[in-house]
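Chapter review. Work through the record for Sporulation integral membrane protein YlbJ before attempting the end-of-chapter questions.
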Amino acid sequence: MKEKKSFKLKYIFIILLILIMIQIFRNPGLSIKSAKEGLDIWANLLLPSLFPFLIISNLLISLGFMDLFGRFLEPLMKPLFNVSGIGIFPFSISMISGYPVGAKLTSNLRENNLITKIEGDRLISFSSTSGPLFLLGTVLTGMLNAPELSPLILIPHYLGAITIGLIFRFYKKNDKSSIEHDVYNLKTTNNSIGALISGCIKDGIDSMLMIGGFVIIYSVIINIMFKSNLFNSILNIVSKVTFVDIEILKGIVAGIIELTNGCKMISSLNIKLINKILILNFLIGWGGFSIHSQALSFISNTDINSKIYLVSKFFHGALASFYTYLLYIFKYKGMLSTTFNTSNFTIPTDFEHWLSVLVNSAKITVTSFIFISILSILIKQLKVKN
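Structure tokens for Sporulation integral membrane protein YlbJ:
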């Protein structure tokens, strides 16, 4: 039965791939333009902001720092999320760096046997989030031109992730399996520090190239899809049945597939600001198939349940929209009752901006690890006193 289902999925995938290739040959100019847009997003937004996180986090895992901190943070993570203390690592770094670092680090922990399969399943449900650089810099400031509304984006997004984590703490709650830790010091390795660093850099480069490939591919797919008469006909039918404007539907579909493009389309619409933010928070919580493809490529190297990841991301988006509406009702209703004029968002391509993002990302990475270190020491001291 499973083999038949797998065969059908492969057959459908081949058909879709052929249709996409036909559209690419029919619209070579559009395909090249779309690929360039995807490349700009990767090179100017993702590469400088994610690369330092990937290298430094890989290095700390390899040296055993995270295993050490994890033991100190066990009293915090175990009662809340039913995962070992080391689970704070992908969760906190994901909140700072953004997609898909949380999924990458969770997979790394499982590959290094630092968490169990069940802990990996629980952890992957809430440790894949967007980062403040995208939420505040790209969406609120660049697309909506409303940085003063940061609580209306940040709070629902991260509260949604935490809620998912609290729910999934009960997933297979009777499972008592755990990783035994016999050694309480840093890992020893036969490799030199130079070899260790070069290995982490290589892994970071491989990950970034893979992420870039997905961003470019999905950017091309979205633009080709919107040029398809069949797709536009389907959207027209859905628009008439649901009474939802077709431009809103296009933005939602784009965001479901590729997050940045979808957010750009929704932000440019002439609709009430609260409606924009409700849709945007769902899309950001969901993440988009482009990000899911990146995350699943990391998860596929482990035995972590990918279905849990996908289901949790849908509910993350739904909860983020729900919390947005609650926050709007209690605090922002008077401020967001009218339509909102947006600015035209363009991706900065100058080297000075690129270098600034890279340096700031490195600073945030180091600061984050210092904070985690201090937190782990404080918790250890409190535990000793008790």
